Amino acid sequence: MDAGRKDIDALIDLMAKLPGLGPRSARRAVLHLIKKRERLMSPLADAMKSVAENARECVKCGNIGTGTICDICASEKRATGEICIVEDVADLWAMERAAVFRGRYHVLGGTLSALDAIGPEELRIPLLISRVRDEGVTEIILALNATIDGQTTAHYIADELAGACTVTSLAQGVPIGGELDYLDDGTITAALNARKGF
Amino acid sequence: MDAGRKDIDALIDLMAKLPGLGPRSARRAVLHLIKKRERLMSPLADAMKSVAENARECVKCGNIGTGTICDICASEKRATGEICIVEDVADLWAMERAAVFRGRYHVLGGTLSALDAIGPEELRIPLLISRVRDEGVTEIILALNATIDGQTTAHYIADELAGACTVTSLAQGVPIGGELDYLDDGTITAALNARKGF
C-alpha cells in the first residue's frame, strides 16, 4: 500500500530536476497531472517515452531529430551554401520560429570558456571547419549570443575560417519595439556605430 | 523524418499545460530532458506512466494513493476519532510534512462557491457527514484556507455537524518567524483577538 506514495514522491523528485521547477512547483505539477491522469499524464508519459527513445543529435549539425541526419540537413529545400552558427538547439528553434533563414545550421553545443576549460574540441568547431571545406559553403552567419563568451567564440570561428568563406554575424542594434529609454548603453552604442542611411 | 520534430512539438505542447510552465519554459524543460534522456527523461516517463496507471482517489477520504483505500485511512497507527478537513490533497501533504497530526483526513476537493455553482454535493461533504456518523468521530479539525470561500465552507460544515461532534479549526495568528511589519491587517487583528496569557 505504501508503494503508492513512494511512486508519487519519486515522480515529484524527478520533476523537481526540470529547469524552472523546484520542489514546491513540482508537487503542484504532479497533483495537476494526477487530477488529469487520463487526459494529460498518460499522453505526456507516452510522448516523453517516445522522444527519449527516438531523439538523437544530427551527426552533421548537432540539431535534435529522430534520424542520424536531422530534418533540416536532410531537406532539399534548404540552401547548402549558407550555414548559421548557433550555440544551442534552443537558438536554432528561435531562428526557425522567425522563419527567415533558409540555409542550414551548425549547433556548437556551447561557447568557448577558459574558466570551464571548454576548448574548440569540446564544441563542434572541428566538425564545422570540415563542413565548410566539404560542403561548398560560401557564407557562415554567426548567430551567437551577445555575451562575452559568445563573442569570444564568434571571433575564434571567424579567425579559423578567414579566407575559406564569407563570415557575417547578426546585426546588433535597437530591437523591434524597443524603447531607447529601456536599452542598455552597449546596445545604444552598437546601434549608433552601425547607423545607416534613412 | 519529419515525425521527429512533431513528436518533440507534441511533448512541448503537453509540458506547457503543466501549472507554472508556459511555452517558453516548456521548450527549455524539453531540451533539458532531451540532453539528459537516459538519466532523467526515461525514468521520468516511466514514473509518470506508473503513477498515471496506479494513482486513484481514496473512496473514504479523497487522498491520493494506489489502492481503493489510501495509506492513511488503512493505517492502524492513525487515530480514528479525529478528522482533519482540507480543501485539497496539496493541503493534506502540507499537514503531513508538519508531521504533527496523527488522526485521519477528509479532502473536500474544493470549497463551496456560489459564483462557480459548487454546492455541498459537488464536494465530499455528504461523505464527511456519513463518516462522522459511522466512524465514531469525536473531533473535526477544520484546516481550510483562510480565504472567503474557505471560511464560508468551514462555517457550512460546522453548522451541519453541530451537535454530532466537536468542531475546531486551526488557530489564526502571527506565523512563526513572521514580522509584524510585513503582516496584513487581518492577521494582526486575528492575532490580537486570539491573544493568550504569556
Automatic annotation (TrEMBL), chains A, B:
GO biological-process terms attached to the record: DNA recombination; DNA repair
Zinc-finger ranges (C4-type): 58-73
Keywords for the protein's UniProt record, in alphabetical order: DNA damage, DNA recombination, DNA repair, Metal-binding, Zinc, Zinc-finger
Stored PROSITE patterns: TOPRIM (PS50880)
Pfam family, one: RecR_C
SMART domains cross-referenced by the UniProt entry: TOPRIM (SM00493)
Domain named Toprim: residues: 81-175
GO terms of molecular function: DNA binding; zinc ion binding
Membrane-spanning residues: none
SUPFAM superfamilies linked to this entry: Recombination protein RecR
PANTHER family, A to Z: RECOMBINATION PROTEIN RECR
Family (UniProt): Belongs to the RecR family.
Function (record text): May play a role in DNA repair. It seems to be involved in an RecBC-independent recombinational process of DNA repair. It may act with RecF and RecO.
Protein name: Recombination protein RecR
Organism: Pacificibacter marinus
Lineage summary: Bacteria, Pseudomonadati, Pseudomonadota, Alphaproteobacteria, Rhodobacterales
